[in-house]
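Thread: Newbie trying to understand structure tokens

Hi all, I'm a second-year student working on a class project, and my supervisor (Dr. K.) asked me to get a predicted structure for one chain before our next meeting. I've only ever worked with sequences, so writing a 3D structure as a token string is new to me. If someone could post the tokens and maybe explain what I'm looking at, I'd be very grateful. Here's the chain:
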Amino acid sequence: MKSLEEFEKKIGYSFRDRTLLQTALTHSSYANESRGRTISYERLEFLGDSILGFVTAEYLYTAFPDLPEGKLTKKRASLVCEKSLCGFTRSFGAGELLRLSHGEQHSGGRERPSILADVFESITAAIYLDSGSLEEAKRFVLRFIEPAAKSAGERPFKDHKTMLQEIIQQNPGERLEYVLTGEHGPDHDKHFTVEVHLNSNVIGKGGGRSKKEAEQQAAREALELMGY
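---
Reply by user tm_fold:
Sure, no problem. This is what the structure looks like when written as tokens:
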């Protein structure tokens, strides 16, 4: 795949404003290397994460009317986790068109799961903004979420954040918060550290190549300390 036109055919959407698509495919390392001449997909990823969560929750609520809230939460977590989103993105070959710094390219950025997962969210947001319609973004997301949800069944998925949230919710008034405490390394080899707080008290710490991975590790540590 060599062009944005071919890519649009693969994802099933033609952009009116192709700069949105280019931004959705631009990693922060490339933006930093260009010294302000372009922007990365990070803001789009932020928006896309919310759209993806809502569309997936709405679909599961309608498609699985007999599932209780706890199982719906776990099913959603398995569908929007890094591994799932990375697989979706690989299926339409976004890695080939990613704009990365030289260092990120040489270190395997085009195949890095955390980056590919982010790109699924950034493309979702780009479609939403370009079309001015939630329906177009929803159509894109459900192309992947719907078949994955039907094939997953009750496949086990260890989502430590969801498990921790469910335990804490048993005590009304308790509040969980994930706090980014560190971000180290060059753009092509970032490492994030996160603390999970319960009512401002640190109950777990974690690290990883993405913020989501670090949060999962922090939640896992908290669960272990609580005896789960």
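A couple of things are worth pointing out once you decode it. The radius of gyration is 18 Å. The CA atoms of residues 16 and 130 lie 6 Å apart. Feel free to ask follow-ups in this thread.
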